[in-house]
Design a protein that fits this description.
Elements (H helix, E strand, L loop, with lengths): L5 E4 L5 H10 L4 E4 L7 H5 L3 E2 L3 H6 L3 E4 L4 H9 L13 E4 L5 H15 L2 E4 L2 E2 L1 H7 L2 E6 L2 H11 L3 E8 L3 H30 L6 H5 L7 H11 L8 H19 L4 H15 L20
């Protein structure tokens, strides 16, 4: 059976390695971006350049997105020469962006009403290293048949895709993912701040806790970078604030108490207010120490 033709828009930190893995997996990729030069690695690997999101849709069976936020998703899908303009009933849109669950529902309903296309909201977790290694985890909202249709393609760059319910459920699951990561980062930073003042050998902490109940990928990766004061110059802290903001809004909507998430959000706001938002999501360590521990 011939592989479905894939389209991809949003070849950034996550999207580019995902596209390269899909190409390695034998898929034909049609791509678009505002700056063609930034897509060079994908084009060099065999991806086909399209002049617009509409052209991506016209030349693809499944169109994937991995862009900044809900506003960007809406613009790419419904803006001038957007995906909807090249849509058709037999095509499928998969959104790997992290956006508000209610936005996912609204946009999916609009796309199906206008074109007949169905929608999967499929945010990912695992970071850039997971995208490069092909070990991402994907949480999906949408019809089971649509998710099953996409499984062979996403298997090239992930370890699994898990159905979580109807459209919007994938985004709601990603919100929980971000709540947990943010809380872990916050308490690890607090613990390391204490450890350094008490005189512990902080560099040994990840190894000391490895395999115990406090162990996690966040501890083994993020804590080591926090100890070394290796802060990435990127906007992940802004993204985390966006995601925590979605969590708090959804919590209010359904009447769910979120005292821990509220506190963590205030710490990220404090980091941003003191001018250190560029330190990334692990930048909370900068509230306790500004040099290697």
């Amino acid at each position: 059976m011939a592989k479905e033709r894939l389209g991809f828009i949003g070849l950034g930190t996550m999207g580019m390695p995902m596209v390269l893995n899909m190409i390695k997996g034998g898929y034909t990729l049609t791509v678009w971006g505002r700056t063609k030069e930034k897509l060079k690695p994908a084009l060099d690997a065999g991806a086909i350049w399209a002049e617009s999101p509409k052209a991506v849709a016209e030349n693809s069976d499944i169109i994937c997105l991995c862009v900044w936020d809900g506003k960007a998703v809406e613009e790419v899908v419904f803006g001038p020469n957007g995906i909807a303009a090249g849509g058709a009933k037999d095509k499928l849109l998969v959104d790997h962006s992290t956006i508000h669950p209610e936005d996912a529902k609204r946009l999916a309903e609009r796309l199906e009403a206008e074109t007949g296309m169905r929608w999967i909201d499929a945010p990912v977790s695992g970071g850039n290293t997971g995208a490069e290694a092909g070990t991402l985890v994907v949480m999906a909202g949408g019809r089971d048949a649509d998710i099953d249709r996409y499984r062979p393609a996403i298997a090239t760059t992930s370890q699994r895709i898990t159905p979580m319910g109807p459209v919007g459920a994938g985004q709601a699951t990603k919100v929980m993912n971000q709540m947990i990561i943010a809380a872990e980062v916050a308490v690890i930073a607090e613990a390391l701040g204490f450890a350094s003042k008490y005189g512990l050998t902080c560099q040994n902490l990840p190894d000391a806790l490895k395999g115990g109940w406090a162990d996690s990928v966040v501890l083994q990766d993020h804590a080591r970078r926090m100890i070394a004061a290796k802060y990435p110059n990127q906007g992940t802290q802004v993204l985390m604030l966006k995601d925590i903001g979605i969590a708090r809004e959804m919590g209010k909507k359904v009447g769910a108490e979120m005292p821990v998430t509220t506190l963590v959000e205030s710490l990220y706001h404090k980091l941003q207010a003191q001018g250190d938002g560029g330190k990334g999501q692990i930048g909370l360590m900068y509230l306790y120490a500004q040099k290697p521990l």
